[in-house]
Design goal:
It comes from Paenibacillus tundrae. Homodimer. Pfam families: Dabb. A four-stranded antiparallel β-sheet has the order 2-3-1-4. The mean pLDDT is about 95. It contains three helices and four strands. It has helices spanning about 15-30, 65-70, 75-85, and strands at about 1-10, 35-45, 55-65, 90-100. It is about 35% helix and about 35% strand. It has about 100 residues and is of the alpha+beta class.
């Protein structure tokens, strides 16, 4: 298994409703892209507000293996989501790592 973590920072014009729209799009990827074992996404509700640094959506995807993760990036459904971020996104942090048994 391989874990993929993403944290999104949106520009000031991105409403809560628009952020929820992005979360819904992310959640739909599980049914569209093969090799996804588990996928969760949501709007940040941490109480550690001094540590948010403007990042408001988190994504966690567990892939069957590293090859499934590699196939995810160029998949048309993922690319459509990435294109939908145009004009809304300020920054993204990504971390990928193998899950130990």
């Amino acid at each position: 298994m391989f874990e993929h973590l993403v944290i999104f920072k949106f520009n000031d014009q991105t409403t809560l409703a628009k952020q929820q729209e992005f979360v819904d799009q992310l959640l739909a990827l599980k049914e569209k892209i093969p090799g996804i074992h588990e996928l969760t996404a949501g709007i940040n509700q941490t109480e550690e507000t001094d540590r948010i640094q403007g990042y408001t959506i988190g994504l966690r995807v567990t892939f069957e293996d590293q090859q499934a993760l590699r196939a995810y990036g160029p998949h048309p459904a993922h690319q459509a989501f990435v294109a939908s971020l145009n004009g809304w996104i300020e920054n993204v942090i990504v971390s990928d790592y193998p899950l130990s048994n």
